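# step 3/5: fold
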Amino acid sequence: MISSKELLEQTGISRATLNNYIQLGILPKPNVQSHAGDTAGAARLLGYFPDDAVDRIQTVQALKAKGLSMNLIAQELASTDALLGVSDMSYDSELAHELESVQFASAKAPESRKATSVSPKKHAMQSSQGMMLSLDRLEQPAYMLNYNLELTWLNEAARTELFCFTTPPAQSSERNLFELFSRPESKLSLNDQRALANLHLHLASARMGKESLTKVVMAADPDLLDLFVDLKFQTKAQEQQPSSAITELDLIRTGPNGLPMLYRVYAVYFREGILVIHTASDHREDDLLAFLGKRDQVIQGLLSKRLPVMTPLAVLVADLQNSVRICSELPPDEYFELINQIWSTMSPILRKYTGTHGKHAGDGVVYYFFPQPESNYLFNAIACADELRQAMRKISADWQLRKNWLTELQLNIGLHEGQEWLGSFQSANHVEFAVLGDTINRASRLSDFARHGSIWATKNLVSRLTSDERSRIEFGVMHHSVENGDRFVLSSYAQVESLVDLNDGKLDKLRDIAQLAVTEIRRVTASRQY
């Protein structure tokens, strides 16, 4: 007998391909046996195959090289087996693979279970005639996590089988995965909780650094830190590499019948988070894999179905000063060229600081910054605003040289923080995030208050930075005095009503923030966090 590990190493195929060969009847279902793991006290379940499995796979590879389809290869091998008098190779045992990521001594697979096989021809017919798979038609438990490991979307199967709540908690902090699994309502055993925690730590570690993931776990359940021993964290070099399309892991947890069951878990990584789907390991998931391969459609669907949540955030509102006059001075094609240049320049900067697109309102933009495991979202908003200002100065200089005009292009930016409801609006081909509440309104008013390309932030936002972060920001308020002249007072704040004449009819809309304490961001030193 040869183990699944040895078979994969000698043939170079993947576990997904091995599973496909088993489902097609090319290889028998493995004989599952316990095997001592490398880690003390941990038990592994290994699938063992007949000694000729390597030769059989090599035959398959030779036939594939000749251009034969897998269905034809399976039929050819089945005919050969019949001529040679080879009996049915299926074992009456639980289908399992080597569990490289989920290992617990107390988690055991069922001793045996009759597997129902589906012929390749019948399965192909079902796939071709069935309805095209979509998020709404997923029957398997599926859910989306952000990189704070907070639940942002789930389907009905996940709600009833895994999380067991009527409605998800409103606060983002209460949607932490580890806390959801440990709730009494989830009815998960301690072994299942730990197995699920270990699975998601492996998934998260592929995209997060150790320090960031440690912070998330410490806030939820420090007892899980002992699971870090087997994790392989993302390196800086890997951050620049493209994400693999689909990650597959095996998981043993209690099934619907109350007995341990082996699941195949699929994960797809997006900038916005991780989509996770649990499937029974003895089911072929060709349609699911084909669906998950359509990344743009999947993430569009996920974003449109994102659960409304009460979350901390910072809001950046930026508006092009004198846009009406600039529009009148430029030919239409050049004005559109300018606005598109501004937006295209801003986009990578906003992505760099993990800004989330809110909406374009005329010549202005709204972006949201949410808590991140890798950095402080409040500092990200300020550092992003400063970099946007620098980029706009370069664009302005280029257009002044090009047009030989004196007009200076300036972005007026307002920043505020708060805790608000986040949701999304969807059209036929566009998803727009929206925040309800005063945070965005006050940031917008601050953008109206800012002039000449300045950046203004509220005292609430700046006060919540760490001392190290504040030390890298030059901020304060310019005070005007006839007797003493103008004086910029560092590290200070002032109410809006003390800085402008609200009796001026043009400034009437600033009355909404008259008593808001604000400060001007003059400069941000080289940032280490984004």
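# step 4/5: annotate
The radius of gyration is 29 Å.
# step 5/5: archive (pending)
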